[in-house]
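We read letters as residues; the fold follows as tokens. Both lines appear below.
***
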Amino acid sequence: MALTVQARNALVESRIEDLWPVLGGSPVELIVDVGSNQGQWLSSALYFLQPSRVMAFEPDPLPFKVLQQWAASRPMVELYEMALGESAGELPFYQTADALFSSLLQPGSAMAKTMVRRGLPSETPSESR
């Protein structure tokens, strides 16, 4: 498969190059993207891995809106505006000025000045439908 420079850069940036040889170039049935943000990694994954189904999870409302717009023309992508954990419940969600660093993990002191704390539900996909 010949790649354009743009496609090659997307592949390298996404780290999918580590998966491609293992999969033997075959499409995959399911991708579960936990912490999808705006779909940066998922965009490359769809291009190179050609999944039949994608489950994308993103608890932060701002990147989730961008993810929704991106996924609107991709019917294989199922979106869930939630975090995932080992049990249902509410956990603090730490939002930072840059959504790439928002997390259920408390940021270190250097980032503490740029965050707000709020609880978000932690559900299973079947509970959210």
